[in-house]
Sequence to fold (775 residues):
Amino acid sequence: MSNAPNGFPHAPLWAWSMRAAVFPGEGIDGGQLALLEMSDAQIREGVERFAERGINLIQTAGFHARFMWIPYLERITELNARITAAAHAAGLRVYDHHSSNGLWHEIEGRYRGWDPQSAVNVDIRTGLPLPKGKPKLICINNPEYQEHYDHYVLDLIAKTGVDGLMYDDVHFHRGQYGCGCRHCRSKFAERFGYEMPKPGEWPLDDYASAIWRDWIRFRVESAGERIVALREKLPTDFLYFSCMSAGVIGIDDVHHGGGSFEWFSRGTNCLFSEGGALYCRNELKWDRNLFDNWERLYVEKKYAGGIAAHHQQPSLQMHYPGNADDGWFAWAITKCMGMNLWRCDSNLYGGPKYGDEFAEWEPQYDYLNWEARHEGLWRYCRPVAEVGLLFSLQSKIHGGADPQPHGEAFAGWAQSLQRAGIFFNVLIDADLEDVTWLKGIAVLILPNAMSLSDRQVAVLGDYVRSGGRLIATHRSSLLDERGAPRGDFGLAEILGVHVGDRPPTLRSSLCLDRRRVGHPVGADLPPRLPMPTMVPLRWDGETSGRRAFAWLEKSRRSFEWPATPAIVENEVGDGQVLYLMPMVGSLAYREGGFPIWFTDPQHERVIEDVRKDESCWMITESKGTPANGKWMYVDEGLDGYQRLIVNAVRHFLPRPRVRVDGLPEGVLCELHRLAPDPGDTSDRGDRLVTLLNMTGALHRHGDWLHRTAQPAYPGLTGEVRLSVREPEIDDAQLFSPDLPEPLSLPVLRDGDGATIIVPLEQVARVAFVRLTSVG
Fold:
């Protein structure tokens, strides 16, 4: 078995076509002791029922917070062994899913003489562990925890024969304030060369402080290192993944939970995200409506796909749909993104309930069996676009928890490119460590990527000088990899601008240079675009290779200050750089549905009191209920900046290898390469173009939304034209669960490649177009 970029073997081959579900279908978190009494016949019946529904990977039953069930651990192991034996006999695989360190209430007994409550997280504000009777997590840096947990899981694997492990809750409790135990303090001092502050001396939530930034990064790195340490002890041919939720817009994963997709992927062989990585700004008050918030869901999935692509891992996603049709949509968008589905309904976590799809098995919900018949459409999916959009974890964690100067910038670019039908890949910080990772990327975008290392700056310089096209915005490269200010852009030489010593006016606008109005970058732009936040700039003026496309509308001319450019293009070696001063992505970002009038603010009160050392999941208590709440589509971004994003990319890449024309607004279109094996990095393999009809969720500012909307798929008309210059296409077929058989599409060849015409009336809900390469 070959190794992935993280140095560990790739996921087992069967894992690239996994279709997962919870066995026996409920009770994932609860410790339902009745499950221990299941007979072998009941287990066989349940496994066979899952197999009939297209499932090939099942999660073992219940007892999620495993160290809360110490008196029952032997019986839980015995149950898992019987489930695994029955699943293997039916040709299914099994993974065990449990919280590695959750203690939601008081426990009984000790494990091998060790009391898990002795290792709970310590609050850095008080220096005290969480009190008895409160939900808590065990510290992942505690060596006794590591020893006893590793012993437990290895013993479980040996006695049950399970094929995989979902190692859950590998993070810290109490938001960003845990853990300050002696083991964390010792590891922190060893890592950074100085002691953690004492309680009461912390620069809490101050991202301008190097100490606070080190603290946030320490927790992220600790979680990733814990994942790696366990991986080193696991069997080679074994599925291993861990849980993380929101990554781009949400703050809980990086700033508060102390975990990250990217650091987890340094040890796992499968990327997993819970809830489809979807959370609204008002956390958990949307009641899991995926359909109406699909654009935000799309952003999170693109980021997850970028990490999975870098580490050559399959990606497994779980959602909490509000109804059965929403569950179908969760499957459709996941497959459009080239990922695998963990099928679940929101009954598992007490959300809006709908009938069990498996029990009803209505034809329109039998999507997993359809997927099973067409596994070749997704095996070893790889991104193949020539445009690369960076999501920089460094920039996210150093930019502050709120607002999200990098997360929203990334989201605005991703949404705008998607709406324009421009195919793009997501890159991560590790892709900038060596120029070889940028092979095949013709245009690279840095969306307010503030934090870059000297090495990354050098790689970007080499990339541009050798012919690459770079688009950078706002504060990109003003901080180093630890978040320390540089004083000037690290990329100043190739950007063609520098940080000035004279601050601009507080509010201004971008005005196109009249000489550039007819230029592709300025096409269809309004003559004036608002710029609420600016960077003080200076430059050395125009040259034969450096020019301004736009200027700040306002500058202090009465003080004889020079005019300030807002968009600068600079030729560097064989490449070109476009610097955009505005927060382009943030201004283009469509936030989507927002809970309005859900709560009664006048009745809210804080129920977490650190001084009394109390703890609760929710920070506030309110008398508001879903019944008195309404949801509104509140923000669709600035159209001018969305156009600027599209213009900038098309200016640098006017003739991509694969282009889509005629794409209606609201139709999601993605491009993949079907690689011949997990580790393949060549350009070989068929192309897969996916189409998802989201025109039923084309909301505008002020639209009222329904909490648990039934997805609607209005009929489409017209045609989409796929122009393919490379590779040479031999055949094209359209697959859809709404069609009885695949549909052959005409391939019209000309001197510049081939054109494939897709009739949109055949895309009722979702369609997958496989383009077979010659040879």
Remarks:
- The first strand starts at residue 20 and ends at 22.
- The first helix runs from residue 40 to 52.
- Residues 51 and 92 are 7 Å apart (CA to CA).
